[in-house]
Target: Histidinol dehydrogenase
Amino acid sequence: MKIVKASEWKPRESNKQDNRAILSTVQSIIAQVREKKDEALFSYTKELDGAILDTLLVTEDEKTKAWQQVDTTFIEALQKAADRIRMFHEKERRGSWWNMENDGSILGQIIRPLDRVGIYVPGGRAAYPSSVLMNAIPAIVAGVEDIVMVTPPDKNGSIPATTLVAAKIAGIDQIYKVGGAQAIAALAYGTESIIQVDKIVGPGNQYVALAKQLVYGQVDIDSIAGPSEVVVIADNNANPAYVAADLLAQAEHDPDAAAILLTSSKQLAERVAGEVEKQLANLERVEIATESLESNGAIVLTEGIKEAVELSNQIAPEHLELMVENPWELLGLIRHAGAVFLGSMSAETVGDYMAGPSHVLPTSGTARFSSALSVDTFIKKTSLISYSKTALQQDAKHIITLAEQEGLGAHAASIRIRMEDEA
Ligand SMILES: NC(=O)c1ccc[n+]([C@@H]2O[C@H](COP(=O)([O-])OP(=O)(O)OC[C@H]3O[C@@H](n4cnc5c(N)ncnc54)[C@H](O)[C@@H]3O)[C@@H](O)[C@H]2O)c1
Ligand SMILES: N[C@H](CO)Cc1c[nH]c[nH+]1
Ligand SMILES: [Zn+2]
Model:
């Protein structure tokens, strides 16, 4: 991995999401799916996933067979993860509220789950059963009743057994074999097989992330949860082997993933670079990780810890690890990150699988304004206003003044008519 001085390094501005070629591909996929519906889904699945399908819905038989193909240790681990995710997200649940004011009026908020959501589970370069749980459980805790899951099939037209088992554990029934931008378009506009949803959530590669951006407005989306990213801020106390392992853990996801170390210790920088070389050689996904590190990886030498924090705030990474002597002291300075991991035992991988908070997090700098997927992702709030006579009498003249100032006479009249009745 290259070691560069902070003064000579610039964080990438976006995850190539504005790459024109990808944009035009995704726009054309969305247009085709809108026009040709299922026919376009079958055609793109053949072209992009190499699978010839005659139906998109996963059958009960496929789900049953999946249970026979996975071992009990995997089921046990998934169940443990599901319990942790549920426990964490139960804490986020909040109900409607209203207050009676002194003048007898009632003001509040009605909180309701969304009716129907689509969850995208990535499946191109790897199966992601963990992402099934991380998407679906917060939705179920929020009370969403209709959840549609989409995920790409392999070239034999199958969904990995591990993904189907995770769906069963999470409580998801409707699963469709379709991935990429075409799956997002199907959820946004509906096809003969796939019903239109109100919101699409879930992580994916650049095609998926960009398609979500383009259908926003037709439906809601959670965030831009694109190719994975990690920033590690480390000092001389950090274990270089741990730091290297955590950089590689994100780099192996995708050639577009990003892994960055920010440190003021030249010694640590050199040790981590050495460790990365050593550990990289033993990785199964060595090619993906190498490409990712070459295009988006860096070890950045800062003047001090403060500069490291400033750079990290500029990047607004999906994951931020604080591998420093006193991580809690640094936490107050962190303004933007999807999730923060404190101390040497909090490997980012813990958050990927088991800690409890959803691993679906904003990427490409969008942690500046977006949050982790949570129960809040699946609710909407309706304001509740019940005015009393006393309240209207007290406020009438101010409302009329504001309405007239805006030149909206009918607004003013709707208050006057009530006041005249009063007389
Ligand atoms: N941010 C998060 O919360 C989070 C969580 C988990 C995973 N991830 C990320 O999800 C991503 C998973 O990516 P993946 O590729 O393995 O699976 P994926 O399911 O996201 O994408 C696979 C699909 O991409 C489409 N595609 C691939 N090449 C294409 C092309 N040339 N033209 C048009 N469409 C094309 C195909 O339709 C294919 O089915 C990784 O980047 C990983 O880092 C992010
Ligand atoms: N690191 C990914 C989020 O960016 C999530 C994941 C799933 N499986 C392994 N990791
Ligand atoms: Zn990961």
In short: Residues 102 and 391 are 9 Å apart (CA to CA). The two ends are 81 Å apart (CA to CA).
